[in-house]
Amino acid sequence: MTPDDDDKVLPPSKVLIVDDNPQNLELLSAYIEDIPNITIIPAVNGMEALARVADHQPDLILLDIMMPKMSGFEVCRQLKADPKTRDIQVIMVTALNEVGDHERAVDCGTDEFLTKPVNRIELITRVKSLLRVRHLKQELSQTPDGTSDRPRDKRGLHAEDHP
């Protein structure tokens, strides 16, 4: 990745932020709201998060672990078990910092793990990176054989990318 990659504008993206603490929800939203082309969708618990996923199909979820009604672990497990939602990128954001908590997060399918208090630059960097991954995966899955349907030259490269 070159420094110029960070300046590239992401395609329109939806980010679901799930936290039962209103101050944390507001802080995470404030940290990422200046990323171009993102729409922030808030949720205050795991059950609401699953409903928001069904309604909005987010590209990325910032997910607290310790919440009422349903933990972030269970939300992530359900999302990753469903073929319609398994490719949504998930960053677990939590005050839990024991090795066992990280292992449990990985076991349920999280893509990243950030410990509170969250460093703003680290959060922005990971959000942008995982959104790029999400959009690249979507581009690759546009055709049934996993290849893009854009025209290719005789070398197999997309013609418009290599004049």
Main beta sheet strand tally, sense and closure = 5 strands, parallel
Shape: globular
Name the beta content range.
Answer: 15-25%
Overall tally of structural domains? 1
User: In the CATH hierarchy, what is the architecture at level 2?
Assistant: 3-Layer(aba) Sandwich
Indicate the structural class.
alpha/beta
Question: Could you characterize the architecture of this molecule?
Answer:
It contains five helices and five strands; from the N terminus they run E-H-E-H-E-H-E-H-E-H. 27% of the residues are buried. Helix 2 (46-56) packs parallel to helix 3. It has 163 residues and is of the alpha/beta class. The protein has one domain: Rossmann fold, CATH 3.40.50. The protein has a five-stranded parallel beta sheet, sandwiched between helices.
Highlighted features:
Rossmann fold; 5 strands; 38% helix; five-stranded parallel sheet; alpha/beta; single chain; 163 residues; disordered C terminus
Task: Give me a quick take on this structure.
The chain has about 160 residues and is of the alpha/beta class. It has five helices and five strands.
